[in-house]
């Protein structure tokens, strides 16, 4: 009988770089049960039943509303500084266990603060410190990105952006606009992101996922996006593909997430190979590994075995992710050289 673990081990052994992973989508089920017991969160007491509330199931409708609904339950768990510390440390540990060399972990301070009304500044302190200590413990380099949501107040987003700028020296590298792209526009946030970029924060924007290709153009021209979260609908408009190529915009593609949230009708139908063939700069990411029940190793396997992307092209995408990181020039050079050496590129 053939050993089914051999192919997966091949992908596991690759050094990895991840640019698009949400802290709020990385909680372990066992941790959630512990928090529920300690803090009286009213959720099912079995892993199986809890999984149905916070993870995408095979029989779930593949829609963005079902995908986002998982986060309504997840927001109930941020009950104390200790909980936020724990989930941050575990997210970093899980990445290190998946042979990820560099992780850019994004988090939404408003989501972490809302359950108990924590001050945003305190939430940022907790995540920054916990991520820094976990990175040292598990021997992985970690950068942080702060997310704000389209469906929430621009005033709140401006507050988050200004706070984030104070943490650049502590590894808070970027600002991200996320949330419900299908029903909320980015225009109220244009000025905020311009100011954030002037303050030294890098910019990545969720666009062209549940919204049209035009949102990618908007993200590049009006929000100053250096990278695009998802962006898989960019192929709908050749002029926007040309713009992205001209600007060197990098796409943070999350294959399984795109399938589960209804962006694509099946994994084999994912436009990733066509994006690569069009000359776009593409990287591979998990988005929300716990919600999607995956690791980056699984994503690499899916891309090679279900989308027929050659291993050589996969390796180039890992290198591209290192090159597209928000690290400073010296640290980026070190990371790129290390990845090249390990991948023998």
Structural class: alpha/beta
Name of the top-level CATH class: Alpha Beta
Can you say what the CATH homologous superfamily is?
A: Metal-dependent hydrolases
Shape: globular
Protein topology:
Blueprint: H1 5-12, E1 16-22, H2 29-39, H3 47-54, H4 64-74, H5 81-97, E2 100-107, H6 109-114, H7 120-138, E3 141-149, H8 154-165, E4 172-178, H9 190-199, E5 202-207, H10 214-222, E6 227-230, H11 238-247, E7 250-253, H12 255-260, H13 272-277, E8 281-284, H14 289-292, H15 296-305, H16 311-323, H17 329-343
Parallel strand pairs: 1-2, 2-3, 3-4, 4-5, 5-6, 6-7, 7-8
Helix pairs in contact: 1-15, 5-7, 8-9, 10-11, 16-17
Quick structural summary:
By secondary structure, the chain is of the alpha/beta class.
How would you describe the overall organization of this protein?
The chain has helices at residues 5-12, 29-39, 47-54, 64-74, 81-97, 109-114, 120-138, 154-165, 190-199, 214-222, 238-247, 255-260, 272-277, 289-292, 296-305, 311-323, 329-343, and strands at residues 16-22, 100-107, 141-149, 172-178, 202-207, 227-230, 250-253, 281-284. α8 links the parallel β3 (141-149) and β4 (172-178). It has 345 residues and is an alpha/beta fold. It has 17 helices and eight strands. The chain is 51% helix and 14% strand. The mean pLDDT is 94. An eight-stranded parallel sheet has the order 1-2-3-4-5-6-7-8. It is globular.
